[in-house]
Structure formats: structure tokens, C-alpha cells
Amino acid sequence: MAIYLIYAIIMVFAHPQVIYPFGDDAFENPAFRPLTITDRDVVLAVHEGTDDVAVLYFMGNGGALAYFGSSLNAHVAAGRHVVAMAYPGGGGIPGKPSELGLKRDALAAYDWLAADFSGDIVVHGYSMGTGLAQHVAAERDVAAIILDAPFVKMCELMTRAAWLPACYMPGVQRWDSAALVPRIAAPVLVQHGTADDLIPMRDGLRLAALMQDAGLDATFHAVEGAGHNDLARQPRYQGQINAFLGRVLE
């Protein structure tokens, strides 16, 4: 018991390094321009599209936008405006990530976009970024929500991986998406790979069921054979997004 208690205490302090293993690769895409919200030091990558829809994009815990080009290009190819938030500590951006800080920055990114854009705003999250997309949707007015490989509670994933009651331990960043569901009103598309071994598809199914039980227009799409990191490269990925947005934004 003493060894287990010491292990638990160590993990309380060490778990941010596990859930934020951000890469350093810089984002270099000529379709995007860098922009910093100076009063908050929030770094964005901005693509000016031709459509009347803007997508506010939140990446996974790779932490560098360079790794999420397939998701971003799906929106660029459709002509949408895209605003992607960089994360402090990743992609060469200085700073230290935390659940509280990332959620604060996500709202700042939305507020910046909403101040200048009069069309529909869609939030799109991938993996860890699904928690940010849902947080924004719970706090602000969005037209639609796209969730790729979402979790129900990140602390549950920690429990499975570390054999610790992470959801009940003080000092643990919980990332509880289930708690946000009652405050969400927009229609939702959940896409999850059947071969995802990082966040199992049962998490996406469970989250979609929670949303449906709450009365939300929540669509679940199982992407056959897709893992966690290649979901956005599957042939039907962009088509599912286009069909969903075409239906809910009519």
C-alpha cells in the first residue's frame, strides 16, 4: 500500500507530461497565416475561405498543428474559413499547457473569431481537442460540433492506463466531457475509428449516446479500419463532414 500511495502521488505531479506530450514541429502551410491574440498570447493559424462557414479547430495532444494537416485540409478544400488554435508548449510555441489554460484560450479564440465573422461558426476537435470543442460549445453559440475520436472523461483513460482512480484524485486534470453535454445545444457529428487503440471506439459511442439521451441531434459514424492517428486520412472522412454540415447548416 505504501508503494502504491507513493506511485499515486508521483502520478499526480507527473500526469501533465503524459497527457501533453507535445511535439516541436512548426506549422508551415501556405494556406494559413499566423496570428496572435496579443492580449491573451493565444496563437492561431488562419485560413481565409470563400464559404460563409468558419471552423474553429482544436487538435489532439500531439500538440503541433503540423500533425493535423489532413483535418485542416478537409475544410480548406471545402472552401471554409478555418481558425486553428496552437497550444502553448507545442509546435515551437512557448508556454506550459493545462486543462484550465487551454479552455481559457479556446474561448478567447472563439471570441476573436466571432467578433469579425458573421456567418456560422463550427467547432471541430480531434482527440484531446474534442474536450475544447465541447467546452466552447457549452459556453458560446455554435452552429455545429464535429468530434473526431472523442473521450467521455480523460481521467477514465488515465485510470485504464495507470491503474489509479484518476477521476477522484485531487490535483488531476479530469477533462470531463460528459459533464458538458447538458449545456450543449448544437448538432454533433462523432467520427471514430474501429481500430482506435488509444481512445477506444466505445468512448465515442458512449458519448454520442449521452448526447442523444440529452435530446441532441448527435450522429455517430464508425470509420472502418481507422486507428487513432489516421482517422482523417480515410477516404470517407471529408465526405461525412461535408454531408453533416450540408444537412445541419441549411
From TrEMBL:
The keyword DNA damage does not apply. InterPro entries: AB_hydrolase_fold (IPR029058), Peptidase_S9_cat (IPR001375). The keyword Ubl conjugation does not apply. It holds the Pfam family Peptidase_S9. Residues 105-240 form the Peptidase S9 prolyl oligopeptidase catalytic domain. One of its GO terms (molecular function) is hydrolase activity. Keywords: Hydrolase. PANTHER family: ALPHA/BETA HYDROLASE DOMAIN-CONTAINING PROTEIN, PROTEIN ABHD13. This is Alpha/beta hydrolase. It comes from Yoonia phaeophyticola.
